[in-house]
From TrEMBL:
Entry protein name: NAD-dependent protein deacylase
Summary of the function given for this chain in its UniProt record: NAD-dependent lysine deacetylase and desuccinylase that specifically removes acetyl and succinyl groups on target proteins. Modulates the activities of several proteins which are inactive in their acylated form.
Provenance organism: Thalassovita taeanensis
Keyword Methyltransferase assigned: no
Residues where NAD(+) binds: 9-28, 88-91, 172-174, 216
Segments forming domain Deacetylase sirtuin-type: 1-230
Classification lineage: Bacteria, Pseudomonadati, Pseudomonadota, Alphaproteobacteria, Rhodobacterales
One Gene Ontology cellular component annotation held by this UniProt entry: cytoplasm
């Protein structure tokens, strides 16, 4: 069987109660991106940024995987070929559903990072700017998430997987954030069949050979069923 590479975005976790970046009235709407999701914003007001991510971390810890997460874990478990999940999400709902070896290109809320020595560790529920790094003791603790202007994680590995994929699927992504928005074009150039599963068409929907629209909990299990022996 062929290799499937799946990119997931905020849309797959929305039905688990985690607001997307563009939700009106959600946590993101209460702050400017420049203030809470950039290195410059962290340098200006680290307390604001830490409190923002403390709230997001608490929300993510309370969330539970939904049917779409569970369907992808089932695909990874039962498909005869390789299934790799790459996610833009900083929650751990794929893992909670049973998925393995997920590549978190934007980091994880439940991880902490020392901006001095680069050490990473499990994040406590609440972090402050004065928290010392367990490795070097410097008070340079930050969330281990990728902010605007920073390079996403695992990019070399992800590009290699995309160019080796037989099927590339994007689930719950807006197609507005690069480099992830370019994954479909890269996979298609390498010969992959491309599939978009989304609530609404993304900004790059015309680049996909196959599309399915609706709630992730409805369309993802159906798509997974089509790939597995009945």
């Amino acid at each position: 069987m062929g290799k499937i590479v799946i990119l997931t975005g905020a849309g797959i976790s929305a039905e688990s109660g985690l607001g997307t970046f563009r939700d009106e009235g959600g946590l993101w709407s209460q702050h400017r991106i420049e203030d809470v999701a950039t290195p410059e914003g962290f340098a200006r007001n680290p307390t604001l940024v830490q409190n923002f991510y403390n709230t997001r971390r608490t929300q993510a810890a309370r969330a539970r995987p939904n049917g779409a997460h569970r369907a992808l874990a089932r695909l990874q478990r039962d498909y005869a070929g390789q299934v790799l999940i790459v996610t833009q999400n900083v929650d751990s709902l794929h893992e909670a559903a049973g998925a393995e070896d997920v590549l978190h290109m934007h980091g994880q809320l439940d991880r902490a990072l020392c901006s001095g020595c680069g050490h990473r560790w499990a994040a406590p529920e609440n972090m402050t700017p004065d928290d010392p790094c367990p490795a070097c003791a410097a008070p340079l603790t930050r969330p281990d998430v990728v902010w605007f202007g920073e390079m996403p994680y695992h990019m070399s590995e992800i590009w290699d997987h995309l160019r080796d994929a037989d099927i590339f699927a994007a689930i719950g992504t807006s197609g507005q954030v690069y480099p992830a928005a370019a994954f479909v074009q890269d996979a298609a150039r390498a010969g992959a069949h491309t599939v978009e599963l989304n609530l609404d068409p993304s900004s790059v929907v015309s680049d996909f050979a196959e599309t399915h629209f609706g709630k992730a909990t409805q369309i993802v299990p159906i798509w997974v069923d089509s790939l597995l022996p009945q």
